[in-house]
Amino acid sequence: MGLMMSTFHQKRIGKAAAVVMLFILPFFFSCSATPTQEGGQSTIDPAMVISFMKEKNAAVIDTMSYLECMDHRIPGSHCIALEEVDMKLSSSFPDKSRPLIFYCESDRCPRAGLAYKKAKLLGYESIYVLEDGLVAWKRAGYEVETIQRVKRAPVISIKSTRLEAFKKEKKDLFILDIRPEDAFKENHIDDARNIPFYLLHKRLKEIPKHGPVFVIDENGKRSFLACCYLINNGVKDVTRLFGGMEALVRQKTDKG
Amino acid sequence: MIKKRVSSTFLFFLVFLFFSGDAYPASLKIQCSDCHDSERFKAEFKNSVHGNTGCTSCHKNFESLDKHIISKEKPALISCGTCHSEIEKQYRNSFHSLYEDFKCYDCHHDIHTLKPEKEHFKIAVAKNCTKCHTNDEYALSGHGAAVMKGNKDSATCSDCHGLHDTKAYHTSGEFYLLEAREFYNKTCKACHSNKEMMERNSISPYAVKYYEETYHGKVQDLGYPTSVAGCADCHTNHNILPKSNPASTIHSKNLTQNCGKCHSGIHPRFAEYKAHPDYRDKKRYPQLYLSFLLMAGLLLVTFVFFWTHTLLWWRKVYWERHQMEEMGIKLESPFTHKEGIQRIKRFSIIDRIMHVLLIISFFGLVITGFPLKYHSTPWAGAIIRALGGAHNAGLYHRIAALILIGLFLYTLWRCFRFAFPRGFRKEGWRGSFARIFGPHSLMPNAQDWHQFKAMVKWFFGKGKPPTFGRWTYWEKFDFLAVFWGMIAIGGSGVTLWAPELASYVYPGWVLNIASIVHSEEALLAALFIFTVHFFNTHLIPSKFPMDTIIFTGSYKLEELWRFRTPEYERLVKEGKLEGLKVKHPSITLKIISSMFGHASLWIGLLFTLILLWTFFFA
After folding, report:
1. How many CA atoms within 13 Å lie on the side-chain side of B545?
2. SS3 category, B254
3. What is the pLDDT of residues B319-349, one digit of tens each?
4. SS3 B299
5. Does ipTM top 0.95?
6. B residues 142-181 near A, CB within 8 Å?
7. Burial class of residue A18 (count of CB atoms within 10 Å of its CB; 0-12, 13-18, 19+)
C-alpha cells in the first residue's frame, strides 16, 4: 500500500514538474535574440537589423517618402515608399527568399507594418519590421545617413482649433494634403488638394510659389519636412497643421 | 604689357601649386579666409561665439588642399558633440533629434556668425522656439508676457519643455500620456513650490502643497496622473492666465466649462469647488476651516476619552489578575464544571454573517482608501500597485462601500423591526418605546450611565466592577458610532463618488468638506476599531488573544453569569435560559473563526503600527 502511494505521489509530482517546466521554458527562450511576433508580424530591434544585414544579406527598406528617405535613413537603406511597394519591390528584389526589413519614421507610424503585409502577399519569405522604426534606431545610438538633406527652415504650425480663423485670414489658401491617396479619400478638409509626400518632388510644379500654402499630414510628424522642402524650392508662405489630421479629427470628435 | 606679366605670374603660381602637391614651403601657408573671403567668414566669424577656434577645429579630415581647391574634396564636419558632449548626449534623445532629425545648426543658424546672446536668455529662447512653434497662446499667457517684460523667474519654453532635451512627449498626439503628465506636473510644481521665487512674484507658494491635499493631487502623487486633473488640465498648457483675466480658463465665468471638460453634466455651482484650498485659512475658507476643526476636535475628544478608558481598564484588570495569581485566589462559581461550560447563544446566524461582511467591507475600505490619504508614503504606493492601480483600488473601495451601505440599510430595517415587530400601525408608540429602552435594546439608558460611573470607580479601586445586561455601554457605543460614521463617512463618500450629481444638491465647496470629513472620519473609524474595539473585545487579559463569540455565536454559561449577571438572572426569571442553550461549536467552525478572527486582528494591528510609523516618521 505504502509503495503504491509513493508511486502515485511520484507520478503526480512528475506531472506537476512538467506543467511548471512548460511555463518556465518559454521565459528561457524569450531571452534569446529572436524576432518577436507582434500583431502577426515579426518585429526586430536595431541590433538585429545590423546582424541580419551582415549575416543574411537582408535588405533594409525605408517606407517613408523619397524625400524623407534621402534626408535621413539607416545607412544602406533602400527608399521604397509604402505606396510604391507593389510597383517597385519585386523589380528591386527579385529573390523572394532574401530577408526584407521594413521600417518607419517613428514609433507611431503604421507604414512599415502595412508594407510588411504587402510584401507577404507578394510572396516574400522572411520579412521583418524594425520595432519603433528610426526612433528606436536613434535611441540605440546608431547614426543615420543623409544623401540629400532638406534644409530646415522655420515653419509655423497652426493648431486645429485655429484652423477656421486661419482659413478666413489667408485668401487663396492652397491646402496641401500630403497623406496617402486612400487616407485622403477617407476624409479630408474642404478644398484640400492631395499630393502624397512620396510624389511631392515630382509634382512640385502644381504648388503655387507665391500664394499661401497650408500642409496637412497624418499626425504632424511629416509636414515639417514637407514644408521645409517647399520653402527650399521657393514657396514663400508655408504653414502646417499641428498634430495633422489626427488632431483635427480628435478635436471634432471631442466637440461632437 | 603689365597685365600680361601679372596674369603669367598668377598662372605660374597656380602651376607651381598644382605640381608641388602637399609639400608647401612654410612661407606659402594659405589661410582659409584667403579663398573664403566673404565678410561672413572673416570679420563676422571672428566676432562669433566660435571666433577663437580655427576653421579646422570643426572642418576636419582634410586630406588634400589641391583637391579642395578644385572642389574635389570637401572637409568633413565634425560632430558638435566633440566639444559640447553633454549637450549632445541630451540632444540625441530629444524630440527634435528623434522625430525631426534636426541638426545643431538648424537652430543655431548661422553657425559662422553666431553671436553671444546679448538679450535676456529667456526672451532669446522664446523667440527662437516660436520661429516654428506658434506663439499665439504662449505670448498671451502670464508666463510669456512676463518673460517678454524681462521677468527672469517666469517660464520660457525651455523651462517646461527642456532646451536640448525636449521630451519626446509630443502634445499633438495622445501618446505617452502618463510620461507627459508626470513630467509636466513635476515641471509646474518645481517652480510653484519654490517659496522664494513665488513670493517675489506675489504668487502663493503653497498651491502645490494644497493641491496635493485634494483628491486630484493625491491620486497623481500615487503615480496615476492620467486619472485625475493635473496642472495643465485646468490651467491649460500655454494660455495660463490669472483668474482675474476674463480670458483665463479659471476665471469665474469659464470655470463651469473648464470643470465640465472632465465632469460632464454638472450644475454651474460645481465650479465652486476649491482646487487647492488651505483649509487652515479661516479667513478665505471659513467652511473648510470649521470642518477641519470639528473633525480634529472629534478625533481628539474620542481618542482621549476612549484611550484613557482603555488604559485604565487594562491596568485594573491586569493588576487584579496579578493579585489573584499572587494570592492564589480562584474565582468562585455556582456551577459545576460541566454546567459552566454549557454554551449559551448570544448572536444569531444573521448577526454573525453581518459581522463577517462588516469586517470584509471595513478592511476593504481601509486597505483601498488609506493609501490615498497617506499617498506620499512608500507603503501607499506598494498597496495600490499590488491592487492593480488606482482605478482598481477605487473600484474595490466602491464595492466594499456598497456592502457596507447594504449592511447599514439592513441594520436600519432590523432596528425598525425591533421597535415595531408587528408593524408601525399595530404596534403603536407605547410598546415600541418600552422595547427601545428595554434590556434587549442597544439604545443607551440611565443604567449605562450608572454602569459607566461604577466602572470608573472600579478603575480607581473605589468599588466593585459593575455587571452588565445584554449590552454593555461600550458595545452600545460601538453600535451607535456606526450610525454617526455612516452619516459622516457614507454621506461624504457618496458625495465624492458622484460629485456631478451632488452639484445639483449642494455647491462645489461641499466636496472639499466631504473630502475632509471622509478622510478624518476614516482615520477615526479605523483607529477606533483597531485600538479601542480590539482591546475591549479581544486584547483584554480575560479574553486575550481573541474572543471568537461573534463568529461562533455562543459563550459559556459561566461567562454569562459572571460578566452579565443581571442578564443571566433575567433569563432565568423569564425561563428563557433553557431555550438559549446550544451545542458546543464544531471544530471546523472553531478553526475557521479562529483563522478569520486572527487574520483580521493582526492585519488591523499591523495597520495601526503602519499608521503610527506614518504619523511619527514618514
Report:
1. 9
2. helix
3. 998 999 999 998 888 999 999 999 999 999 9
4. helix
5. no
6. 168, 170, 172-175
7. exposed
